[in-house]
Amino acid sequence: MANTPARTRYAPSPTGLPHIGNIRTALFSYLWAKHTDGQFILRIEDTDQKRSTENSLDGIKDSLRWLGMVWDEGPDIGGPYAPYTQSERLPLYQAHARKLVDEGKAYYCYCSRERLDTLRRSQEAQKLPTGYDRRCRNISPAEVEEARAADIQPVIRFKVPLEGKTTFHDSIRKAITVENSTLEDLIILKGDGFPTYHLAAMVDDHLMEITHVMRGTEWLATAPLHQLIIEAFGWTAPVFVHAPVILNPPGKPGKLSKREGAVFVADYRDLGYLPEALLNFIVLMGWSYDDKTEFFSMPDLIEKFDIKRIQPTDAHYVLEKLDWFNAHYINHILTAEDFARRCVVFLVKAGVLTQDYADDPANFGYIEACCKLVKDKVVTLAQVPGEIDFMFKRAEDLDYPAQDLIGKNPDAVAAAQIVQQITERLKRLPDDQYHHDGIYADLDALSTELGLKRGLVLWPPRVAMCGRKNSPDGLAMMEVLGRQETIKRLELAYRKLSNE
Length: 500
Hints:
Elements: E1 7-10, H1 20-35, E2 39-42, H2 54-67, H3 90-102, E3 106-109, H4 113-125, H5 141-149, E4 155-158, E5 165-168, E6 176-179, E7 187-189, H6 197-207, E8 212-216, H7 223-233, E9 239-243, E10 246-247, H8 265-270, H9 275-283, H10 298-304, E11 315-316, H11 319-333, H12 336-349, H13 355-359, H14 364-372, H15 384-388, H16 403-406, H17 412-428, H18 436-450, H19 454-466, H20 474-498
Helix pairs in contact: 1-10, 6-7, 9-11, 12-14, 17-18, 17-20, 18-19, 18-20, 19-20
């Protein structure tokens, strides 16, 4: 299979934002297409007109682009099998449904919603399997005329063979064989002329020459029906791959759902996760290259991805693992410049920067230096504003208690003397020595002169720079802030301690 270019598709319904489960299916589809030098198609299954929205469609496209999955054919760029939106392909589905009716492989059903509801309640009361009882499969001409006279708009149901067995093949699972008598005559075309998934997806996959279909395990139950529909048209089925279910973290039973927290791709972007980390996290829920490799770039994944390594067993969602991936990418993979550029949007959103300030190229060097202070400390980009907001404030706007400056020093007087002497030394420090190592050497010498542990000397200026007990490296803050601003903050600290 790997030697033949594959045509895969991601066919979401625009009724909500993409979540981790279906975006993983999209990723598997994308990787297999690219691994085989094939095409990845975006097809929009908007037959649920009541719930489909333009915002959802935009969210689908944005999520794919953010993750780096660019489609080769789709509703916005066209392609040889356009249109790629199902609501624009209704005549195709209607013609195929009528063809099955004409060949005796499907039939019109005139049963009302009321009758179907009554049937279901009766079956449930008798503890029988629920499903359509095939009443209209052999409806008389008189009954058809009566239904038409009542202006009942019929649906079209697929006529499942009543005898024999159907075997469905999945590339990563054992073959599924079912008795045809256990299958229901499901609707393939609704009364409003819109198809159901069972017809539309089969027709589109065939006409668009889709070679591999990746989808969730929820479709396994109706897979034999899909096999029968494909056979009814005389087509060759694509290779089906049903990805494993993503379960809640251990200790929380059930399938991952939005009730358990952030599951939409857009949520992770807004929370400051990197697309590279999220991709790495997603692909390893149900696929593995070997038992040791965990970090993959997109080119790595394209090169190494193999359908045979998709696991049929359920996968667990563990947020701590995603945090670990994200922190690794921030700390070890991103350059300081790239990290800062990605942080800008979060700094603006948090109100730390104005958009005008962020857009001025002259300010980027300072922004980058500030972000670098916490590059090895944060887990997500969204944490950065709260960690460095003080770097964009004036000294007089820092609000903190003088007590914080004392640390383990004996009292405010002792801390004030340390701050005063540091201030005087930094004023005299040569320009070519005003950097991290130069400042460190100067303050180390001061601690020796005072006969104090280095930590006692370094604590007050560290708090003075940021107004916090927990902060980045104090000397690094002094370097980034510059001599003038550093001295202002030290002088503010001295005044606070003198008034203590």
